[in-house]
Amino acid sequence: MEEIDGACVVCTEESAEVYQDSGNDRYKVICPYCGDYLISDDASRTLASSPITNIRQRTNARSWVRENRGLLIRVEDLGPLRTLRTPSVAERAEKLLIAIDKTYPSIGAELTKRLFTGNPAQWCARSWSANPAELSYLLTVYMTKTKGWLLDSDENFTSTMHIAPNGYDHLEELRLGGADRVSGFCAMWFNEEVAAIWTDAIKPAINAAGYDAVRIDGVEHNNKIDDEILANIRSSRFVVADFTGERGGVYFEAGFAMGLGLPVIWTVREDALTEVHFDNRQYNFIVWKPEDLPELTKRLQLRIEATIGRGPVTPQAN
Ligand SMILES: [Zn+2]
């Protein structure tokens, strides 16, 4: 791949590195805000000629791309990318608290404030902040003064902070809150071609692992993710996403779940694996064959139990 001149087409950041992958008609971008992503030639040209000009939407897009590392952005993904919902201030502060805890896992680790002030790009993106002032507000006002999640050793914004005991308690509440949920949500293509994997494999596997299986039925969503779907994902313990058929909605539902910190289990029909436009080396797909759905059922149940643990729901007799 050859480095070329150019800015990040998602957030227009000029210091991004852009590499051309001519063999695959796409670009790889390494952006201080968006992280690493791939974008098709067509999508890149479309975004370059019609950038996301609304600052809030551009902020949302770069944060979303950062939460979905390794994504290949295609033309059909641009509609949803331009209209992402803005998370509430509370959600953004929680995302930031989770990111800080992941980055500095030892208890009481010193968080150098200069990191946030001197190199704020990734922290702006991780907290869905439009600028360092929003980030600073979240850190000093919301998380430190109001919520008490962070401890400030002085007022000058020059020394160190720590996650406070309240912050660790809140992280624990977030984890336990998830543990109370008893349903697994399925995102998949609504098409006769794959209808059997819901009835004969995914639903029975989720049930056998001890969870209620939830799918919002019937309509093809045309890449528009409605509130009912988002509410159902939000109240689920995990998401099973089947990528057969390359539906934009499935990518966005999986991405939404990942942004909430929910485990996502990836499945795809054998012949469709090469079409998947996440960098699939980063995700461990369960690859299934239409003639062997019992195998998918068994592997999916094991994967749910191994990653999330057995759920509390008594399996229904079929
Ligand atoms: Zn960017």
Overview of this structure, please?
The protein is of the alpha/beta class. The protein folds into 3 domains: 81 residues, Helicase, Ruva Protein, domain 3 (Orthogonal Bundle); 89 residues; 127 residues, Rossmann fold (3-Layer(aba) Sandwich). It contains 12 helices and 13 strands. It has a 5-stranded mixed beta sheet with strand order 1-2-3-4-5. It starts with a strand and ends in an 11-residue tail after the last helix. Bound molecules: zinc ion.
For the structure shown, list the relevant keywords.
318 residues; alpha/beta; Helicase, Ruva Protein, domain 3; Rossmann fold; 3 domains; 5-stranded mixed β-sheet; 5-stranded parallel β-sheet
DSSP helix count? 12
Name of the CATH class of the largest domain: Alpha Beta
CATH architecture of the largest domain: 3-Layer(aba) Sandwich
Overall tally of domains: 3
> Which structural class is indicated by helix and strand composition?
alpha/beta
Bound molecules: zinc ion
The multimeric state of the shown protein is: single chain
Rg measurement, Å:
21 Å
Beta-strand share of residues? 15-25%
- The overall average pLDDT, rounded, is 86
- Spatial ordering of strands, largest sheet: 1-2-3-4-5
Q: What fold name goes in the CATH topology slot of the largest domain?
A: Rossmann fold
Helix content: 40-55%
What's the N-to-C terminus distance? 53 Å
Concise account of the structure shown:
With 318 residues, this protein is of the alpha/beta class.
List the helices and strands and how they pair.
Blueprint: E1 2-4, E2 17-21, E3 26-31, E4 35-40, H1 41-49, H2 55-67, E5 72-73, H3 78-82, H4 89-103, E6 111-112, H5 113-118, H6 121-126, H7 132-146, E7 150-152, E8 160-163, H8 165-179, E9 183-187, H9 195-208, E10 212-214, H10 227-234, E11 238-242, H11 248-259, E12 264-269, E13 286-288, H12 293-307
Parallel strand pairs: 4-5, 9-10, 9-11, 11-12, 12-13
Antiparallel strand pairs: 1-2, 2-3, 3-4, 6-8, 7-8
Helix pairs in contact: 4-7, 9-12
Bound molecules: zinc ion (ZN).
